[in-house]
Amino acid sequence: MNDPLRRTAWTILAGFLVLAVATTWIQAVAGPDYRDDPRNPRLVASRVGRERGAIVSSDAVVAARSDPSPDTSQTFVRSYPGGADYAHTVGFVSVLFGARGLERERAGDLVSNRDATISGVLNALMGGDPRPRGLRLTIDDTLQKVALMALGDNRGAVFAVDPSTGAVLVAASTPGFDPNTLIGPDSHLAGQLLDDDPDQPLLDRSIATTYPPGSTFKVITTAAALDAGIAGPSTEYPDPGALVLPGSTATISNYDGKVCVDGTTVTLEEAFVRSCNTVFARLGMEVGAEQLVATAEAFGFNSVIPYDLEILASAIPEARSFTDDPPATAQNAIGQRDVRATPVQMALVAAAVANGGEIMIPYVVSDVFLSDGLIESSTTPIVWRRATSPASAAVLSDMMERVVVSGSGRNAAVPGVRIAGKTGTAEVTGQPPHAWFIGFGPVDAGPGEPQIALAVVVESGGSAGETATGGSVAAPIAQKIFAEFFQ
Amino acid sequence: MTRNAEAVLIAAAATLAAIGVAMVQFAAGSWLDADVALTFIVFAFTFGVIHLAFRAWAPNANPLILPIAGFLAAIGFIEVFRIDPNLAALQRWWLAIAGISAAFVVWLLRDSGVAVLRRYRYLFLVAAVGLLLLPLLPESWPIHGAVVNGSRLWVRVTVPFADVDLSFQPGEVAKVLLTIFLASYLADRSEAMATVSRSIGPIRLPEPRHLGPVIIAAGAAFLVLMYQRDLGASLLLFALFIGMLYAATGRGVYVVSGLVAVVVAGVVAYQQFAHVRVRISAWLDPFADFTGAGYQTAQGLFAMGSGSLTGSGLGLGRPDLIPEATTDFVFAAVGEELGLAGSIAVITAYALFVTVGFGIALRCRDRFRKYLSGGLTILVGIQAFLIIAGVVRVLPITGLTTPLMSYGGSSLLASALILALLGRASHEERV
User: Fold this and answer.
1) What is the pLDDT of residue A116?
2) Does A112 have pLDDT greater than 80?
3) Residue pair B397/B296 in contact by the 8 Å Cβ criterion
4) What is the C-alpha separation between A302 and A27, in angstroms, rounded?
5) Which of A96, A160, B306, B358 could bridge across to A35 with cysteines, CB 3.0–4.6 Å?
6) DSSP secondary-structure letter at A26?
7) Residue A371 — pLDDT band, cuts 50, 70, 90?
8) In terms of DSSP bridges, do strands A383-386 and A358-360 run parallel, antiparallel, or are they unpaired?
9) Residues B125-153: pLDDT tens digits?
């Protein structure tokens, strides 16, 4: 009488065994796949809803903050009070588009540590503060706003650092976007518009786009010649309006096709101040591909610059690809042809000259602070590499100062401050030239004296179009930043 | 002595519920408040009052069923509290009411024993069928049906002179009444039904009139499915009938014909009803229609996958993202926050409950008590199996409450009746 009952019992228990196996499969075997599935709203919820630490500028302006959600307890709402001001560097955390910028790279600091993971429990047991930590940026809010204002409606970028530490003072890219519009679950349209915008507002032009550096690259060509002992500031060169490149019919001419001084001879310094292409094309061929590439790489080309965010590497071709091609060497030497540089790279070129030839690792996060405001850790400036000798840097500094005093960079001058710089007008086939200015100030800064090195690029000449030059378009933007910095 | 052990284990279950609530509050960043104490008090009261009723009127009742039920109720309650504290506050009332009801049933049967239920078997059948049909009452009546989530399972009572609607799921209680009826019917007829009267080839069949109940069962289940769009209840009732018929007669033909009926009914339902087709396709590939039919299943899988081995911790997961996480999908909520450890513990607890229940049935010498305790155990076991199987994709989602764990007064009341009857039946066999 009991056997059927017993069999029924075993059948149901076998059913539970099947459930146990299925549950084990879902949770233990397939678990990570389900957990990490992009459609799993937990990813989004943990990204968006958790409390995150504040991000503030060096002058204590809030760039990102979390406030308790008015709707539900336990969740927080992230906002970016500065709107587009820090859109590229700070980034955002979005339900639909994931995380970008520091919000992504420094999530480990920014996100609350209170969870049931082993590390979370250990942290709690060790008396660690489970609340999220905040970030203090090196960016100066006033300077950042001035840079964005100066760039205006143009496509372009400004990147400025303290040459002696590598602390980033300005990281501006235009056009920008308001990250607040990309946070919520209803931000699909806003994201689509930004994605489809031909001006690419989401792109951080200061670190993620390369441009031909044009004449700003002459700083590197000159450094190569100085370091190799091939030339000095007073070395004399012929001064033709155009130079026929050996083994070809191609010519390199000066910006306006005219001679640089009087058509006889010109010193290297004078040629630098007036940015004579013919002289630097000749100098480049004398220096040779090997030395040119070696110096460019010493300045950081072909390397990924270490930074809080990912920087696109600036590029110069391998030396052997143009060792036997003097015309290519000549064109590369004036920052055309195959040379490409990010604004951050060119800012570091200026910073190297300002800092006696040494480049500091750029950094944008100065401090990590606890929720009570106490600083947990601070970034220590670290030397990245030596770009050129102190002697060459000193010579370049003098030459660059003359560019601003009496040469193509006069528009960057600030009364009472020794500003040094170099303009660039990078030719691009089929479109207006990119306007460049790189520079720093003050020249020969004393110990502890604030110093700034920067690069400005205005894509395709901005509103000036075909008539744009580095001196007329980029230098005035740099001037505004210098003026604010030295105010 | 065993009653004392039961009291200690009940206190442990109440403590578990209270600690769970405290952990949820801690995770939410709030400090402990009255909820913790209230939860302990309500659990201690609910299971304590049944315990005292057992002491008074069923002293030899099996001491394991209450603690296991308490454990499941505690785990379920913690997740309900975690997802919706307001719902949990109501659930505490349902728990208390369920406890009092169970104690009342034990008291009612104190002298007559469960045997008295046999006398009213047809009353129970009529009541059960009536309850099952209640949701079909038109909306304009003071007592009327209501459609919730596409299924017509609810009855709403508009209380006169007070602007209050009381809702309940009559099907929950109806299935217990049906089990009583069936146990009583089978106690009278099982031997006749087990007798082979004719053969068709190798298949030996009982008298056709004894097959009647199977056909009625299949028909009733199918009608419930058609009119109330309730896949779960119809499958549960049908499985209960077949399981009890087989347990009582030992005739495999009931199981075979039952399975055939299920397949046929399933095929017909698949062809006739769009909502059945949707359920099936969502089962086979929940991600094919991720934002539509497969949404709930997918959210359950995400929750359980995110829970992994040890879970997010109480209050630290997001079970609130799962649709119906306080009722049908409470198992997924447990899986997320307590991990595989928690979900296996729940399955193990149900398996223990089923083992204890069948243990009671196996020890019964009286047929009615045997079929009653066996039937009630089958009811809990199959209901737990069907709903969990839906969550972990062993079967399509059927839409049933998770016994003892889900939010809901009707479901808890039904479970309380089962606890009282199992306790009383086990007591009577030891007297």
Assistant:
1) 46
2) no
3) yes
4) 46
5) B306
6) I
7) confident
8) antiparallel
9) 888 888 877 877 777 777 777 766 666 66
Written as one string, the DSSP assignment of B90-119 is: HHHHHHHHHHHHHHHHHHHTTTT-TTHHHH
Tokens for B349?
Answer: 């607890």
Instruction: Report ipTM (2 d.p.).
Output: 0.93
Contact A369, A133 (CB under 8 A): yes
Q: Which two tokens stand for residue A359?
A: 């480049």
- Residue among A9, A12, A32 minimizing CB distance to B385: A12
Mean of the per-residue pLDDT values of chain A: 86
Integer CA distances (angstroms), B192 to B105, B248, B249, in order:
32, 11, 9
Residues of A in contact with B393 (CB under 8 A): 22, 26
Type of residue at B38: L
Within 8 A by CB and 6+ apart from A445, the residues are: A164, A354, A451
Cis? peptide before A185, omega within 30° of 0: no
Across the interface, whether the CB atoms of B306 and A34 are under 8 A apart is answered: yes
Q: Are A228 and A291 in contact (CB under 8 A)?
A: yes
Q: What are phi and psi of B161, to 5 degrees?
A: 65, 5
Count Cα neighbours of A422 within 13 Å in the Cβ-side half-sphere: 32
Which residue in B292, B325, B306 sits closest to B407, CA to CA? Answer: B325
Q: pLDDT-derived band of residue B415, with 50, 70 and 90 as boundaries? A: very high
Whether the ω angle into residue A233 lies within 30 degrees of 0, i.e. cis, is: no
pTM assigned to the model: 0.62
Distance CA A419, CA A397 (A): 10
| A452-458/B143-148 β-pairing | unpaired
Å from A133 to nearest chain B CA?
Answer: 17
Token pair recorded at residue B342 = 């928690």
**A6-20, A213-227, B249-263: segment of lowest average pLDDT:** B249-263
Contact A15, B296 (CB under 8 A): no
| Helix/strand/coil percentages in chain A, nearest 5 | 40, 20, 40
A141-150, A285-294, B161-170, B399-408: range with lowest mean pLDDT = B161-170
Contacts of B272 (CB under 8 A, 6+ apart): none
- A61: its two tokens: 């302006």
Residues of chain B neighbouring A30 (CB-CB closer than 8 A)? 305
Separation between Cα atoms, residue A456 and residue A52, nearest integer Å:
33
For A135, the token pair is: 């970030």
Test the A interface: residue of B369, B392, B395, B429 with most A CBs within 10 Å: B392
Q: What's the gap in Å between the CA of B375 and the closest CA on chain A?
A: 10
Q: What is the 3-state secondary structure (H, E, C) of A207-225?
A: HHCCECCHHHHHHHHHHHH
